[in-house]
Amino acid sequence: MEKQRTIASEGELSGIALHTGARATLHLRPAPENTGISFCRVDLPGKPVVRGAVANVVDVQRGTTIASGNAAVYTIEHIMSALHANFIDNCIVDMSGPEPPICDGSSLQFFDLIRKCGAVEQDAEAKYFTPAQPLRVVSGGTQIVIFPNPDELKISCVTQFKGCPFDPQFFEFTLTTDAYYQEIAPGRTFVDYSDLRMLMAAGLCKGGSLDAAAIIHQGAIICKEKLRFNNEIVRHKILDLIGDLYLAGRRIRGNVIAIRPGHPRNVELAGLLAKEIAASN
Ligand SMILES: [Zn+2]
Predict the structure, then answer these.
(1) CATH assignment of 3-126, given 3.30.230.20, 1.20.1050.10, 1.10.580.10, 1.10.150.290?
(2) What are the residues whose beta carbon lies below 5 Å from ligand 1 (ion)?
(3) What pLDDT, in 10s, does the model give residues 67-89?
């Protein structure tokens, strides 16, 4: 019987937060079995805790935001993705502010942090979930379907990014911790230059730089180092999906077909999964 896991020791990393541009620290602490992933705003009075659950999602526009009362946590998808990929079921993520560090726009640094903390098995049985029937979300050019598969989480993803020279992109990935580290974790965030201009005009992306994302502009990709994969965009989309699906509250299994996924439909699908999980209890 596979057991639930938490981290073996505490650990933290600091860096710049994407939207506020402020310095941010993310600190991981072990958590008891059956408590899931929680975010604690240690900078706020009373240190409010927001569970990393789909019911707490309040915004999906340019990242996944959760909130409870006045406490909000932005851009949780990359740390959620690294926790899902490492099969860490229970963990408290202490936050020094509303956003985690953006790091290099991938989940590599979060993965390394979790590895450094180590993992320990707990007494309770690990909980996997695969839906009994296919679940589907669709909107505009986006469609995501998850088919039952009790054995693994396999994601086949197609993406199209306006003005991107390597377009469309396809990647198929079966989740194991080691494969994630090699194939998915290094995939960085991409932003379109016109979107970026709008975000900056709105006072957002203050911490954005070529250290934190690659920029697509007039058919070219602008980034500090060369592309890590020629299909880096689709790999990052899979990274986000693995993080958003973890909001359902279980290790997810199934065959996922994702066409042009993004946070709104990822989170909607996590919501359908959470509903099925609640009904199955
Ligand atoms: Zn992302």
Answers:
(1) 3.30.230.20
(2) 189, 240
(3) 999 999 999 999 999 999 999 99
